[in-house]
Amino acid sequence: MSAFRAQPLQPLNSGQLNSRGTNITPIKTVRRPTENLPAEGAKQHKKKKEKLSALCKTPPSIVRTRNGRDYRRGNFLGEGGFARCFQMKDASGQIYAAKTVAKASIKNEKTKTKLLSEIKIHKSLKHPNIVNFVDCFEDDVNVYILLEICPNQSLMELLKARKRVSEPEVRFFMVQIVGAVKYLHSRRVIHRDLKLGNIFFDPDMNLKLGDFGLASVLPSTDSRKYTICGTPNYIAPEVLGGKHTGHSFEVDIWAIGIMMYALLVGKPPFQAKDVEVIYERIKKTEYYFPEDKPISPSAKTLIQDLLSLNPLNRPTIDEILNYEWFKGPFPDKTHEISLSETPVSLEQISRAQSSINFTNTKTNAGIYTPRNKDPVEILRSDLQSEQPRAMLPTSLSPNDTRNKYQEVDPSQMGRPRRVNFSANFSTAIKRLNQVCFETYQNMRRLEYAGKEQSQTQEAVDCENPTLISKWVDYSNKYGFSYQLNNDDIGVLFNDDNTLLKLHNSDRFLELLYHENEGWACVENSTSHPPTQAKRQLEIVDFFAKYMNSNLSKVSENEDRKEIVFLRRYTRTSDYIMFEMTNGNFQFNFKDHHKICISKSGMVITHISPNRSTRTLPLAAVLRQGNFPQEQVPSCLEKITVIKEAIKRKAFKEAN
User: Fold this and answer.
1) What is the per-residue pLDDT across 353-380, written as a single tens digit (0 to 9) for each?
2) Which CATH code for domain 155-364?
3) Where in the chain is the domain with CATH 3.30.1120.30?
4) Which of 89, 266, 414, 452 has the fewest CB within 10 Å, making it most exposed?
């Protein structure tokens, strides 16, 4: 796939790294050369190659679906030959990548059937190393395929930045790729467009295989496909034979060999400026291993077998990982530093540890999972429209996009009313969605600095932060209520409005969103509240009485240092995460220890189960491995969990 051409339709925030469309790949079909066509035919062929993505209209700011879900359009990610890609955000704040195909580009029944087949195949797949299909829907002008967003770009971007990749890292990549391909083949799916640009890094740096625009299902083991399709540098020789030879699962094995060679050497083995030269080299398997870019003999052996001219001589997907090459140094995971440089000490990983890492990676990639006996079925009923104007049958929409945990994000428009805006507070709220990225970057920098961190870099203000001391999740009816350690009571309502009642005061504050001016804080009197706020004040009082009567505080009282609202919360089985308007991140772990990260990731606070609070520079805790005097159970592990959670938020923010 050719790289997407990034053309932002709106400025990107500094915390958003999804500036390239590496999550979506357009359909790319390799056509026969035009040299033997008459002039008129050649001209028509050239016209066909014009990008149909140009027909794709920019989606409206809010895309409404027929199943009742609304998605807010975010940043433009990029485009390919047939589609454009945009970020989309649902009501919970979750960010996705939306592959957007113009209906005007679907000119005949064959093209329509191919698109619906792609949706049907991708929807049916569920594997840890395959980009997750979320939903599909349409409006009058576009069809949208909603996918998991992978924020760390693709193997192609990694290779461009690195020039070459070390053998230990490629071993790890190959296991995850083989796991995904084995799963596809077990369901009789041939990908047919495996390449570095179609394999992406998720937030945890695991590889995810995407783009099923050329994928096809073989109805039986001995059946074959005959369409000439793929990407020139990766196309298998039997594909070029067209109807004379046909092709099957072995084309994906060939592509694995191309990717392995490209990562280790720096470019694909048959690369040339002229596509016809590439095809001739492929047909003769004409390539070599450069002497100035040495790779191990066992790596050469595997590549040579994968790139066998005769498909039957290539190893099966189950045989690949049995090669001697995989017994070399093997890391436990891919680290983010790999995106820009080679991690240190990879070659020093012991044989015993490498064996453990190899086994664990195979397990995580589903290598040991029994062959799936339920192949993908493309039914005629799945590919038929139900209405003349509609394109997507109801059967193609999974209708299961609810999050596993609840996340309330008041980033949508509040109720319309006339208010006086506080410029300072509004500006602070606008900056909040950059704080995730800044905090993550600072935590990551301090973690890498380790023991070399100087005392001068630790010179930060370490006062105890404002914390959430009590909370009640009643979002199934009203919202999420919380009490701060300064005794202010707040409710994050389900309608995205937030109200904060100040302790020992007759004043209350509302946090509102105005379409043109952004976030604002509005102050009112509890004795003469606006009509629309009376009911919400009653709910705040109800929660206040409940918490004071039934809940214990998790921290000691503090005087009010600043006005702080809860911005968003996330609940998982291991913790609840609070994001505050002042940029603080509070994590309440299930073992009753609480940790707060403040000052843009420079300061850490621990609240013990007995409510004692200790605040220190994060650098000092990282250097010592724990808090002095009162040890925190699994302290460094908890900090890693916090860093990764904030990282995920940084990559999910769209506006």
Assistant:
1) 999 999 999 999 999 865 544 677 766 5
2) 1.10.510.10
3) 423-652
4) 452
Residue tagged active-site, from 90, 135, 193, 496: 193
Q: How do beta strands 518-525 and 507-514 pair?
A: antiparallel
Class level of CATH domain 423-652: alpha beta
- Tens of pLDDT, residue by residue over 444-466, are 888 877 645 544 445 577 888 99
User: Which one, of 397, 460, 498, 484, lies nearest residue 598 by Cα?
Assistant: 460
The CA–CA distances, whole Å, from 541 to 16, 494, 524, 567 equal 39, 17, 16, 20
Q: CATH 1.10.510.10: which residues of the chain? A: 155-364
Q: Are 449 and 602 in contact (CB under 8 A)?
A: no
Region 610-627: mean pLDDT is 92
103 labeled binding residue = yes
Q: Answer for the pair 623, 633: CB distance below 8 angstroms, yes or no.
A: no
Per-residue DSSP letters for 245-286?
T-B-THHHHHHHHHHHHHHHHSS-TT--SSHHHHHHHHHTT-
Note the pLDDT tens digit of each residue in 385-400.
444 456 677 666 554 4
Tokens matching residue 139: 């409006």
Asked if 305 is an active-site residue, the reply is no
Please identify which residue in the block is written with the tokens 């049916």: 124
Q: What angle do CA 280, 283, 284 make, to 5 degrees?
A: 90
| Displacement of CA 597 from its chain's centroid (Å) | 24
Tokens coding 377? 């079925």
